[in-house]
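Following up on my earlier thread - several people asked me to post the actual chain instead of describing it. Fair enough. Here it is, all 321 residues.
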Amino acid sequence: MSFFKRIFSSEKKESLDSGLEKSRTGIIKKLSKVFTGRRRVDEELMEELEEALITADVGVDTTMKILDRLRKRVRFEAYAEVEELYTMLREEIGELFSSGVESGSGSNESSFVQPYVVMVVGVNGVGKTTSIGKLAWMYKDSGKRVLLGAADTFRAAAIDQLKIWSERAGVEIIAQHMGADPAAVAFDTLEAAVARNSEVVIIDTAGRLHNKRGLMEELTKIRRVMDRIVPGAPHEVLLVLDGSTGQNAVEQAKQFTSATDVTGLILTKLDGTAKGGVVLAITDQLSIPVRFIGIGEKMEDLQDFEVTEFIDSLIPATWDV
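Reply from S.P.:
Thanks for posting it. Predicted structure:
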């Protein structure tokens, strides 16, 4: 939704470049070994490219899809130079992102709903609470009235941490005690949001996935209760994943999407890892849009995900940079 989007400034691009430096260095190092010193495209080069992408955490299935399309283009478009193949690789990665999956933040709704309700899910330790705090700051910084709901009542620490982030972001929070009914917290939060004329509501949920049936029942109850106060809520369900876990993040995403309807992804901790290629695998295998990526500790380091800027930062226009 457009009211969530912010201009992708040169400062943000520099921050993105810096945040993806480890991943970019790792991928370019692998690709340089494949392309440097060669002029012609042959099957040996394609096999080495396949290995490079797999070891860059792009994943086997996604890599095979990319390589199949490249082989067809080399054959049917009569490309033979390695420079042209590298350009095609970037194009195919861009196509992978755009094939039925929108990029950027916000909602798939066509008009603004007030209050706009975002439910956030994800296991403990992936940066869920931090992401919520940064989202709250982002929306407030764009001029929105924001309210948080501490519906992860399974851990007292989760409530306390969210209170700290609400203070940092300068937004209000609705919280109860540890062990309270999460649906009741969500209900109270939305009632308060309506009364206070809040524009954006972000609901935290329990960070555990030991029992998919239990998780589904809990999230379904929260959804049902929120819908009574704000019809259609939640308007967005964001799954937070730790990008530094590589292919484990893909498996975790598959488990969560089988337990609840996820409309968008937040990928965190990309600045501390060389596993940025996992973004391609997640996008390809789940067909769920990446809304935001976390590339640092500062508030502004949770950025809108933009395909063009991401590809340019992860895989530059030349491999000999």
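The beta strands are 116-121, 146-150, 172-174, 200-204, 236-242, 264-268, 290-294, 302-304. That should answer part of your original question.
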